[in-house]
Amino acid sequence: MFFIAKDEEIKEGLTTDIYFFRAEEILKAKGVNNHALAEFTVQHLENPWAVFVGLPEVIEILKDRPVDVWALREGSIFKSRDVEGTPVPVMVIEGKYLDFGKYETPALGLICEASGIATKAARVKKLAGKKSVLSFGVRRMHPALAPLIDRSSYIGGCDGVSSVIGARVIGKNPTGTLPHALVINLGNVGVAIKAFDEILDPSIPRITLVDTFGDEKFEAIEAANAIKDKLSGVRLDTPQSRRGSIIDIVREVKWELRIRGFEKVKVFVSGGLDENVIPDLIKAGADGFGVGTSIANANTIDFAMDIVELEGKPLAKKGKFSGRKKVYRTFKDGTVKFKVVPFSEEFHEDNYDKALVPILKNGEIVYKEEKPEDIRNYLLDQLSKIEEI
Fold this sequence. Notes:
- The protein is α/β, with parallel strands linked by helices.
- It is 35% helix and 21% strand.
- It folds into 2 domains: 7-115 and 299-383, nicotinate phosphoribosyltransferase (Alpha-Beta Barrel); 120-296, Aldolase class I (TIM Barrel, Alpha-Beta Barrel).
- The protein is built from 14 helices and 18 strands.
- Helix 5 packs across helix 6, helix 6 (146-155) packs across helix 7 and helix 8 (180-186) packs across helix 9 (189-199).
- The longest helix is centred in the N-terminal third of the chain and has 25 residues, at 104-128.
- The protein is elongated.
């Protein structure tokens, strides 16, 4: 048995904080079941913007319940506050409170973690530009989360994912090199990459780790000499604390391959990477990156769900903005901008569009779910419009 909640347990609300069940018991005993409208916002972001992901799973727990839901399109870049400092709702639920109240905890969890992973992936991809970024982080988290991690990473901009099940979810082939374990079992990198080339399908890129036993540049040369022009790339996975500067190692390996006629061999870097080192590695000649822990273990987006309207009247706890709202978004001056107004008002300004779209109508799905590839393309298009990082 693994320590994970089953699908039916999540849909029953069993992953919810106990005080929601206690509130439900009291409200039922008192015969109170108000019509409520609740919105999901985040008060502050650690970076200028974030990416909204996790919508299909929220739909899964709320569908067939008598509620209406509106949300940002999945993959949308958003900010915590609009141009005047008003918190930006990314999702809204309306219905009888007892029909959705106990789902507050799982609904938050589904978007908080997925959005955090996608946001970190998007930041890495923004800095990497046209260079390849692969999601390597599933080994750092509970294996049950592999599909979530890889889907969110891919939507956030990663070009590929490493896990078999994650790749299946996004409809792509998994990506990777060969492990140190293969080199150790076969004795050296040359024998390992030659066996890789002899046995595996030719469609799989011939990319090998080159830091198992010896100096990276000499293992890279050995691998190149073993299969010649078939070698697609080498991967440097040595942590910076192990030997000098990984940036200098990239330069050295690129040079040594180049002067021996292997200038087409790409150099990939992995091992404890975060977005901050990406620009310097690109300057040194790195062709791609395998990013694991910093994406898979990204800080969650600290969303909260709050009632803002009860029985048609504006009402919210202190610190929150009461009332139903309209949300507009635009891309301007290298950034994304939002405008939030009371629902009774209209807002007309060039290039601003309504940001929230219908998701559920009385429990029926009215939102057309997109393929992960299409969501990713939508995200990349937005990334091209912003300069902030």
